[in-house]
Specification:
Keywords: Membrane, Transmembrane, Transmembrane helix
Strand content: under 5%
Structural class: mainly alpha
Number of strands: 0
Amino acid sequence: MPPAQMDDMEIATNKSMAQRLCNFVVALGVAVLFVYVFLPYLTRSFGVLNRMSQYLDDNGIDPSRYYYTDVEQVQEAEQYLDSVLELD
């Protein structure tokens, strides 16, 4: 390896624990701000997104569960639970 690259690698690997922790906290903070501040602001800013969000909330629909309704195992599990919990 050329000496210039070696120095860059040494600098990158020799970061102190405090500096790495600080970088982690900053990255985590940016992610939290993005999810809990920016995305809700974006949703409220556009009428269509706001109406869709309100409709989902008002009707108790969790859009993150849509994927799982198409998975074959979910149907099998639901049938099993229906048969086991069936009252005679």
